[in-house]
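> run fold EF-hand domain-containing protein
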Amino acid sequence: MKADSSDKYLQYLKHSFDTYSHGQGMNFTSLSDAYKKANVSATPDDIERQIKLSNTKEHNLLDFNEFLAVMDRGDHEESVLKVFGILDRDNDGVINSEDLQQGLLLFGESATDEEIDIMIKAADVDGDGLLNFEEFLKILTPSKINGQ
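> ok
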């Protein structure tokens, strides 16, 4: 049976992962090296953020499934960044309850103040009562763990 293009791409990613991880998992340096080899432009902050968002085991090494999440995240992350920019009306880098309330209205939705507070608390990892981009991205990124 002939492998289709998605199978070939997956095999290519597996080969790249194995080449750069040396069987130990992919860290900042190996992901950076892979990007350089592929002529992908990414700042050290971009790479750190990608590892942080994809690393489900919190040991700073990406396994193959986490590496796939990094590779799939690019277009999705850009889309989420656009939505974040719309909601962050004062451009302070965070979404507060008023930003979220106004954003919902923009998209034809509404919520009570209590519902807004619940939404923010559910996503607010650092407990500051605001949503930064990483927190916002996590809510809008499907997870293989919860079957999305």
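The chain is about 60% helix and 5% strand.
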